[in-house]
Design brief:
single chain; 224 residues; alpha+beta; 5-stranded mixed β-sheet; elongated
Length: 224
């Protein structure tokens, strides 16, 4: 049955207008993006198939073009549209983070970092450089690959902090394994970075680990 044949109160678009986007399921939101289904499947059916195939919205967003286009009804145009939506969301969050106090906007910081790092196939180390009012000056991907004290150089991080005249930093990296728990090397690295930055009077406010749908804060765990 086509969505247009559903009772009005069950149609995703009408429900969004009546109750807001947060009231919709992942499949319903994705169905609105898809707009139409394929023969024998409504847009909601197709959305559910996509989520089942990739496992989550996060993994769908991170899917390669070739894999995405193997789904019947999907193609390059839809892939481009989806990536544009993801990038707009990332930039909107980045604007929110840049214009406010990062410590007073923990939700925006977490969501920005999750959108930036989720689904990455290798570890990526990111730094947010903050001014004295904890507003974000810049965000940079500093290192990629297996992250240890020998691959993330505290000296280089200090140089970038001085370049931006930063008063504080927030670090983040991802765990492609999907486990949002710090390893011993994560803790050693964070301690080394904190110690090196203290020498130039720059504070480390937090270090986030993004993995799957989780986002762990070192500060909240008492690890800083």
């Amino acid at each position: 049955m086509a969505i247009t044949d559903w009772p009005e109160g069950e149609r995703p678009r009408e429900r969004l207008l009546q109750r807001g986007a947060s009231a919709l399921s992942d499949a319903e939101l994705l169905a609105i993006f898809l707009r139409t289904g394929v023969v024998g499947k409504s847009a909601v059916d197709l959305a559910r198939e996509l989520l089942a195939r990739f496992g989550s919205l996060t993994q769908l967003f991170a899917a390669a073009e070739k894999e995405f286009c193997t789904i019947h009804g999907m193609g390059r145009a839809k892939y481009v549209q989806l990536q544009a939506v993801v990038e707009m969301a990332r930039r909107a969050l980045q604007e929110e983070v840049r214009t406010g106090d990062a410590l007073n906007s923990p939700r925006a910081v977490r969501e920005y970092l999750q959108l930036l790092l989720r689904g990455r196939q290798q570890e990526v180390f990111v730094a947010l450089f903050l001014d004295a009012q904890h507003r974000v000056i810049a965000a940079e991907e500093l290192f990629q690959g297996t992250l240890t004290q020998t691959s993330v150089y505290p000296r280089e991080v200090v140089k970038r902090a001085l370049h931006y005249n930063a008063a504080a930093l927030i670090f983040a990296h991802n765990h492609p394994s999907g486990v949002a728990e710090p390893s011993q090397s994560d803790e050693v690295l964070t301690g080394a970075l904190k110690q090196a930055l203290q020498l130039v009077d720059v504070r480390v406010l937090d270090h986030f680990i993004v993995a799957g749908t989780g986002c762990l804060s070192f500060a909240e765990k008492g690890l800083l």
